[in-house]
Amino acid sequence: MARQSEVKAECSPAAVGSQGRRPFGIHLSAVVACACFVAGTMLAVLAAPALLPELLDGGTGAYVLLVGLAGFFVIVAVIQRHMGISLRASQTETPDQLCTSGPFKYSRNPIYLAFILPLAALAYFSPLSAAVAIGLYVLTMTQFVIRDEERTLRSKFGAAYEDYSRRTPRWIFI
């Protein structure tokens, strides 16, 4: 096992979570995020019926959602570059090294945290729908994706991962 100082400085060239992989190479995190976005959008349409015409007409709300999506892709690209992963990567193997630097210094799941940006953009139409979609996303991701990944990392990196998880929150504050 690598010493603590070696673990801190390195990032893996592969993402974690092979057990989250689905058919066609789609990771469960993407399925969860899309489902939560659809649920949040449906709630927003119920709360603000003007949503559909505004989206179809290319109104301000459409741009807010596009900026949220673009922000997500930029954040993911920056994090993947930091990890040494190609933007076209569909790798989900267990990493060789524990990544604790850069954005991983503040959150153990910065890419999953980035998925919240498009969900938050729904607040333009309905703050309640955005809050419900974000809450559903965080709960579902924690229960069905992140806990499995944490078990894998704990098994592979032992005390180094335990120390990292004590220092760094799963999301931002929790």
What does this structure look like?
This protein has 174 residues and is mostly helical. It has a single domain (4-16, 25-167), classed as Four Helix Bundle (Hemerythrin (Met), subunit A) (Up-down Bundle). The protein is 61% helix and 0% strand. The chain is built from eight helices and no strands. The model is unreliable at 1-9 and 12-23 (pLDDT under 50).
Provide tags for this entry.
174 residues; Four Helix Bundle (Hemerythrin (Met), subunit A); 0% strand; disordered N terminus
Question: In summary, what is this structure?
Answer:
The protein has helices spanning 4-9, 28-47, 51-56, 60-83, 110-114, 116-121, 127-157, 159-167. The protein is mainly α.
How much of the sequence is in beta strands?
under 5%
CATH class: Mainly Alpha
Radius of gyration from the CA trace? 17 Å
Count every helix, treating DSSP H or I runs of 4 or more residues as helices. Answer: 8
Q: Main sheet, how many strands, which sense, barrel?
A: none
Unreliable stretches:
1-9, 12-23
Q: CATH topology, what is it called?
A: Four Helix Bundle (Hemerythrin (Met), subunit A)
> Averaged pLDDT, please?
81
What CATH architecture would you give? Up-down Bundle
Please outline the helices and strands.
Elements: H1 4-9, H2 28-47, H3 51-56, H4 60-83, H5 110-114, H6 116-121, H7 127-157, H8 159-167
